[in-house]
Design a protein that fits this description.
Elements lengths: L6 E11 L2 E9 L4 E9 L4 E9 L7 E9 L5 H9 L12 H14 L4 E2 L2 H20 L7 E3 L3 E2 L1
Parallel strand pairs: 5-7
Antiparallel strand pairs: 1-2, 1-5, 2-3, 3-4, 6-8
Length: 154
Amino acid sequence: MSLIPDSLYIWLRYQGGAHKYHWGFYLHQSKHAGTKYHIRNLGQGWILEIEGTHNFMKEFLLIGCLRIAIVPSMNHNRIQKILQDIPYISEDGTMTCRIWVLNGLKALIDGGHVRCDDLQALEQEVFDFGLVYFEETEQNKQPRPIVDSKSCTL
């Protein structure tokens, strides 16, 4: 499967073993380009990164992508606005990239952009996806997998 324009994905990047993943969103906007959304911890706290990218599937240590929504081009800016507004600083220090993505999913569901009735099932699906493909990532097997979520209605 290839990336499909006007589609929103959750992506995982390998970070050293099973269930050790970096989580983010990717909005594929055209045949070869899209926007990557994620938070990074720079040691003194989290920052939001929004980055246009070409050839996303060649990102270093990318495990793969799960398609969670079809997003008409007229809604691309709304998706960015929603994700920009997701808090990434927590008072209690419990923020992670996974929690930020889950909070983003809740906002995208509330906004009608993602159709998913069971967020817990989607979270488990993402963990399972990473578990299935992390060894292939260690071996740099190409191409990286792209699958449709079974927990979301596309």
